[in-house]
Amino acid sequence: MSVALSRRSIMRLAAVGGVVFASRLGVRSSFAAMDDFYFIQLSDLHWGFQDAKVNPDPRATLEKTIAAINATPHMPDFVVFTGDLTHTTKDPQERRRRMGEVRALLGTLNVSRQIYLPGEHDAARDRGAAFREYFGPLHQAFDHKGLHFIALDNTSDPHGLLGDAQLSWLAADLRGRDPEHPIVVLAHRPLFALKPDWDWFTRDGEKALALLAPFKKVTVFYGHIHQRNTHKTGAITHVAARSVMYPLPAPGAAPKKAPLAWNAAASDHGIGWREVDAEASGLQVEDRSTA
Known about the structure:
- The chain is an alpha/beta fold.
- The protein has a single domain (7-289), classed as Metallo-dependent phosphatases (Purple Acid Phosphatase, chain A, domain 2, 4-Layer Sandwich).
- It contains 7 helices and 12 strands.
- The chain has a 6-stranded mixed β-sheet, with no helix packed on it. Strands 5-6-7-8-10-9 form a 6-stranded mixed β-sheet, with no helix packed on it.
- β7, α7 (205-212) and β8 form a beta-alpha-beta unit.
- The longest helix has 15 residues, at 92-106.
- The protein is globular.
């Protein structure tokens, strides 16, 4: 993949610093009717996570991320959170306490529009009841400057399903749309079977992909796996995001799925967030690390 930074991106990097990995996605056709803008993706904040061997100061990690975003000279049009805003708990009161705390912290972002998706840590134990109270709908669709966005919920069902009702909603949303029109899908879990034995898939994700298959410019941004990963299914590009809180091993690189240990000497701890530039030439991602 070629590496390219726009002038606007270079200005943002100069203002914030940090390690950046920039790569052009495989969305080659021109988005001629689209106005240039950018948005930020944050994923897997896991507010409430505590393990000093994995992250010695979880609160500071999120606060540094918010401060870095607030320091950018050009604010994004919006921020999307692709799930697991909180760490799982069996206690419903603690779940709501964590959601209230992280919602208050995210309220300090200098970005008024924020779109929230649930992760299984947020929603699987109560089918998204608390999440809806604090963050709104579990799935939604909207248009922004020539792009159509679809935010899916593949976590509030404890079996990791989208479910027939949501698939019918998706089919209705896509019906009659121009197959050349660019679409961005947001999700927590991967829609394809990345590593099913680690729960890195959506049980009925292939049904969603079949509905999206007729469209020629589809990019799926997701979280859940706590690392960068790019995959293609037909014309659909799937791009995973780093976690804000802790990294996980690459698929199959370890005997089990478990957070990687913190290395105090490292300059890049495998955690961070993403900027997505939407330009006439396509979509470009820049993955920013949180040192």
